[in-house]
Amino acid sequence: MTERNSSPDASPDELLAREYERYRERTPNSKEMADDLREVVPAGVCSTYRAYEPYPFHAERVAGTTIHDVDGNEYLDFALNNGTQLVGHTHPKLTEAATDQIERGTLYTRPSQLLEFAATPLIDRWEAIEQVRFTNSGTEAVMHATRLARAYTGREKVIRMEGAYHGAHDPALVSKMPPLEQAGPAHDPRPVRESQGVPSSVPDDVLLAQYNDAESVERLLGERASEVAAILVEPACLNLGLVEPENGFLERLRELADEYNVVLIFDEVKTGVKLAPGGGAEYYGVQPDIVALAKAIGGGYPVGAFGGRREIMSLIADDLNEGVATGAAHYGTYNGNPLALRAVGVTLREILTDEVYDRLADHNDRLAAGYREVIEETGLEAQVKAVGSQGMVHFTEEPIRTFRDWTHVDEEFHEAYWIGMVNRGVLPHPHDASQQWTVSVQHTAEDVDAHVDAFADLATHLSDAQH
Q: Is 284 marked active-site?
């Protein structure tokens, strides 16, 4: 133990500092570009999440499973744009279809056959979806799903899980990752606004429960059911790395929604088509009333969708009766634009076929097994989760079932792992310990093994720092 403490990796701080220095040496052009971009774009990025220390590497092009940066470095990509590209980068079928559609037109604001082309495979995959509307992002999909639930029930409050991410609209920025000193006790969490500009009244309509704790949902319904429009939940919580439902959690939510006549909404923006062809609903065998979708359904093209039972979806209307809306409005110039619809249809009909899912599961299991073997060999304190095409390593041996459990993850230590993997030519997952890897249809067994080899090269240093 004494020898380890005297090594260059004697602490996570020292390991992280060394990996940061190596990162800077490999990415001088990205550093220069980051400095220039900050002058014209706040933080030099177009989504707050994309900014991190010391600066993000800047992409030049992508192809297949690889990102090339402006410094000539190549990265084997398992982040895949926040898991959006289950099909991999520049898939030839999508490129061919998009090129053809560009020539036909990228915006109609008129219905076309492409609506059916994109909608039908979603209806086929989700038992809960009888009708579907298209929008432009996951944020919009969840926003419209919750609006629809309020219209259907005539109530306004939504039960959500503390620590879950549901987009960037105002209610979603309440307690997505709240500081514990502001969040109150786990049994009675306090809603916390996590952005300036969110009105102080917004948290009043957000009721917080804990993921994997059905009793916390039941308590809220027992006290305030007459005010509750919906229960909003990810089937597997993918804002905590990867946390799966346990002990009949989703089944109990379905029972409670029926018992109290509230709408059960599955946010499948991240789980949709990635855990199974029909997302988390299929994988865990529980069907919601409304499904919100985006990311992987479009193969990298900007699209979102929300769908559900015909009884609920039929409330979407723009009509006014004596100046009062008679339904739930859904507007948007770019909604259902032909380029996005073409991408959805091709992705779901031609690329993400049944046989593809067997291969994805095999490669994901291979990656998880490789991580576990390295962890055992090096004595790292870590656990690996994997389901469908998704997986994650948490550098703790403590069980993670809820947001409060996840807060015990050492984020600085995880940062040393993440930067260390990038320095070894592998983008293991989107930046941050709250994320997860994605295995795409274009990854090979050799790609998976290269990922594991990079982790093996880094793991001894991580183990030295951890102990």
A: no
